[in-house]
Design goal:
- The protein is an alpha+beta fold.
- 45% of the residues are buried.
- The longest helix has 18 residues, at 232-249.
- It is globular, with a radius of gyration of 18 Å.
- It starts with a strand and ends in a 5-residue tail after the last strand.
- The protein has helices spanning 21-24, 29-32, 72-78, 87-93, 111-114, 138-145, 161-165, 216-220, 232-249; strands at 2-3, 6-19, 43-55, 58-62, 103-105, 118-121, 124-127, 133-137, 169-172, 176-179, 182-186, 195-201, 204-208, 252-254, 263-269, 272-277.
- The strands form three sheets. It has a seven-stranded mixed β-sheet with strand order 1-2-3-4-5-8-9.
- A hairpin with an 8-residue loop joins β14 and β15 (263-269).
- The protein binds zinc ion (ZN).
- Zinc ion binds at residues 110, 112-113, 211, 214, 257.
- Residues 110, 112-113, 211, 214, 257 line the site of zinc ion.
Amino acid sequence: MNFGDLEIHTVSDGFVHVDAGGPFGLVPRPLYAPEYPPDESNSIPMALTCLLVRTAGRTILIDTGLGDKLDAAGQARWRLERPDGGLLEALGRLGLSPEDIDLVVNTHLHGDHCGGNTRRVDGRVVATFPRATYMVQRMEWADASHPDARTRSTYAAENFEPLVREGRMQLLHGDTAVAPGVDCVVTPGHTHAHQSVALSGAGWHGFYPADLASYAVHLARLSWMTAYDAEPLETLRTKAHWQPWLQERGAWIFFEHDAQLPVGRLMLSGSRFEVEPVDWPG
Ligand SMILES: [Zn+2]
């Protein structure tokens, strides 16, 4: 869809199934189950929805999904499903090849957000998007490079280290304008230097929160957050800051992991925030 000078598409790397305790952390099951009914193994689907933005002659990809480097055991652990292929097939349906991507923004370096940054060719790990500059916050890269017991399984060096070594990873210091109407904004909590992307064109506003609000309900309810948030109270403060910003602008919010409500707007219903779905062609 076009908004002023911005052309925006959601591009899917497929979806996985995760134990609902991951996305909902300390939220009791009787509260989340009516919203996102788990299956018999207590799993819920988790989408891997990336965003493609074209503006000012640049083609920008925001997050890269889980990628293709997982072995069969890894794919089975995630219960990965790609009925329409992965991210590269989704880009192909828009007529785009990996060479067409100018810029890749990583919201953070957890494996389900940057796994597609690189791929394995003849045993070597190389950039999936050979012409692209990649961007992530410097402090996120520092955290990813020194994982702890909680983050070791999700920060895989092969997803970012080859890019840093080759000088293709631009390390950002705080909020950064990427292109006209495309701004990286630091939204700490899920990780210390997690970033979201604010979009604007011709009076329209969009927002890609990534794991600031993995599912729509996370944005509406301040106290709902994932089990993986590094600083849960910081997530709460960051969401409290962005809720009125999003509601006042009627921003279209693209939820990276929400399979049942992929695009929505934050509305006030009485004194409570709710996310209302937006009809999105994809
Ligand atoms: Zn995630």
